[in-house]
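Below is one record:
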Amino acid sequence: MSSTFARPQAPWALRLVPPFPAVAQRILALVGQENVSTAQVSELAKLDPSFAAELLRFANSALFGARREVTSLTQAIVLMGMDRVKTMATFVVLRKMVRSSVKVEALRKVWIHSIATALIAEEAARVAKIAHETAYTAGLLHNLGTLGMMSAYPAEYSRMLDVSNDFGFDLLKTERDLFEIDHCAAGAYLAQDWDFPDEIAAAIACHHDQPVPGALGLDGVIQVSWRLADTLGFAAFSPDKAWEYSILVSLLPRNTSSWLLGSIDETRAEVSRRLQASGL
């Protein structure tokens, strides 16, 4: 699929989604520039106390293995790197967006699935030799449309999920019947409306397409990664098809060493360890 995605007309189902916070948008724009300093990002992050707190918490998680407690934003930014700071800005915004709107259990499942997908996508991108930080962000955002509709219509969307899961309805078709848009198109719209790169919007738009052997650009990595997350036990919804782990892994190159290419039990254990280590 092309990395450009034509923005659809504003859907009514997303009109109640909160706008992207200005500070977070400025952080994303700043870290995307060349020669930006950690001091500049640190000063901007201080304008949003919740983001600053999340940044410090993440830097002190087992994932980064800091030898001593990280107490300043500048230290945290240096330790994590600009790309991960960009991802954290996105993560904090999404969690704010849905925290007060969604039933805890439904939100927890979507979060775990999204983070597991991001971790898998990051490693799959390394195997496929494409930008792994972009893959991580796309994996984290692939269900952005779900989160958007959850935040705008929490009761209605939660009931739709319950009914779809109980009776085995096609999720995308049910979303289109009730909201006139499915979560793939909704996520692509929000990604572009919030000024994420077109390649991420495109990957979100087509993530439910069937993965094609040998087509391992960003789109293909995300298509394989969320299905792997489901297969490993991190599904947010009832799957439309029971994918076999070995078939999904066979879509990835095997000419490099990777924990993702091990047995299903080994991979599940590694993803679980990384979820715990991330402190998220």
Q: What stands out?
A: The chain has a mean pLDDT of 85.
